[in-house]
Amino acid sequence: YLDYVNQSIPDKYLPPSLFIHPNDLKKSIVELYENKEKRILLGNSLREFVREKWSRKQVAKNFLDLIKNEYPSDWIQNPKDLPSIHMTCIENEKGIEFLRLYFKKYGKRGFFISDKPEIEAYLINMIEI
What we know:
Layout: H1 5-8, H2 25-34, H3 36-53, H4 56-67, H5 92-106, H6 117-126
């Protein structure tokens, strides 16, 4: 997902972050520890982002905009438009193996996405059944 996050979420909605591969976590922590300027810049950018985008007032306004049906079109995302499917909190290979076993036990009906044939086909192709 690291390689696709900017394709699925517009930059203006992403908090200032370090998007790293889990294998690089230790190296990234050491880098932030050793580079005070980078650490302060990232922290200040994040503080400003939270102040502007996630304040109580802004969050309340966002909910009101949703209720009034007056929200930006880029708030809505069609899963069919996502560049790919990625595992969360599990290594990709382990997730794919889980999906293979799940598919063998429950079949494609077990995915509960028959109303989305393109995504269903993508998933089945991804697990190479």
